[in-house]
Every structure is written in C-alpha cells, then in structure tokens.
C-alpha cells in the first residue's frame, strides 16, 4: 500500500495544487467557483495528514450508508493520519465547499496536538459525516475564512499560532454539531442498537461464541458497516452504555441461563461463553450482578 509522508507528495498524487505552506493547504470554493477535482480513482493509500472537507454536491446523487441525505446543506468529513483511503470513478461530482489538509507535525508543540486525538469523529467512516444546517454552515465557513486569510498572507511569527487557534475553535464547533446530530437521529441510533443486539444474538445462537470466542467490537462494527468509534459514540449517546458494556450485558444474560444447568462447573460456563480465563468471567459477573456465579446459582436454582 502506498504511503505519503509529506503533504506535498500527497497533493501531487491527488493532482491538486501544491500548498502555500509545506504542512498546510486550504482550498475554498467561492462565488461560482468549484473545488479542484482530485484524481477520479485510487487503490488503498495512506498518509500522515489530517483532512477536513466540507462538500456540497452540485451534480450527482449519493447515499451515505443505508440512508439518503440532503446534501444541498453539505457534509463535513474528517480523516485522520494513516486512515486507509480508497475511491473509484463510479460517480463524479462537481463540488463546492472547502478542504483543509495539514500534516500531523504542523501541530507539534501545541495543546491541540493532544486534544485532536480526543475527537472521535476523525475515526468515523465517510457514511458517518456531519451534516450541517445553514446556520451551522455559516459559522464554520467564517472560521475557514479566517484560516484562509492567514494561509494566504506572508507567514510571520504569529501565523501558526493564529491558524492553530482557529482550527481548535473549528473542532470545538464540530464536536457541538455532532452532539446535535446524535440527538436528532434517534431513529438511526435506535436502528444501530437493534442491529448490534441482533448481531450478538445471531453470533451466540450460531455457536460461534464457543468456536471463535468473544467477538471484538471492531468485528461487530465491521459486520454492521460502521466504524467502531461511531458505533460506540452512538450507543453511548443513546443508552449511556458503551459497546463493551452492551456486549458484557449479553454475555451475562447468556451466563445466567447456563448457570442454572447444575451439571456444568463455573469454569465450563466461562469457557462456553468464550472466556479464556474463568476468574475474569467470575469477576465480570460479580461486577454486573453484585454476586458471584456460584452465589447466583445457589440463589436461583430452586426458583
């Protein structure tokens, strides 16, 4: 897989203009203009840059995931360093909006270098983009204009500090808008929870738990065609519980049924549930139920 270590080499590969700054590029369509179009297709590639793109699709229809969205309001997409990128030429769009690309070293020595890793939306898939309202769009565009002014100006001792400050403000607004999007998409959130539970039920009932062990959250997310981080954030917002906590609840519910079979030891129950170490199963069970597996069996075996 081809990897690009510098911003310039990455933009050269895309067929986009070289940046004004070795570690930062800003493209912004204004008036009747369009964003420069990158190459139409690419095999999997990676690079060392963050990318933030806001695109309005002027021509072409697009479904994000299994849901239709109104893209006249635009979609904000975040990509982190070393995220695998691949696209084809099945659909070509004329695009308005903006694109900001910066090398991860651009943030070195700043507080944002640490803070940016806490923004989960950089780990989301393209079908989990942020969809802005017209008001939100104006707020974001005003910040981008400030960044672009500094980007186009002659660089001085204050330029980087001002740009990083504006990027920090931009990401704080994006975080706020994602919170709004989670709240406004109850139906989609509920659907994800139902899919998650259904996948676990099918996994348990098919005997894969005994054959392959406890599934990872990454495996479950891949089956659902969503990113691990987005799945976790969505369920956390909807239920107050993480994906791992939901997985543990399924395991404990399954354990309760098996524990009432008196011919199986606690260790056998643990192995049947995919736990490599029975003591870990016992600790988890007690944490969730307030009693050990043995105590649970004694309490309910006669009921």
TrEMBL record:
One of its GO terms (molecular function) is DNA-binding transcription factor activity. The keyword Transcription regulation applies. PROSITE patterns: HTH_ARAC_FAMILY_2. The keyword NAD does not apply. Pfam families: HTH_18. Keywords: DNA-binding, Transcription, Transcription regulation. Residues 198-299 form the HTH araC/xylS-type domain. InterPro entries: Homeodomain-like_sf (IPR009057), HTH_AraC (IPR018060), Tscrpt_reg_AraC-type_HTH (IPR020449). PANTHER family: ARAC-FAMILY TRANSCRIPTIONAL REGULATOR (PTHR43280), TRANSCRIPTIONAL REGULATORY PROTEIN (PTHR43280:SF32). This is Helix-turn-helix domain-containing protein.
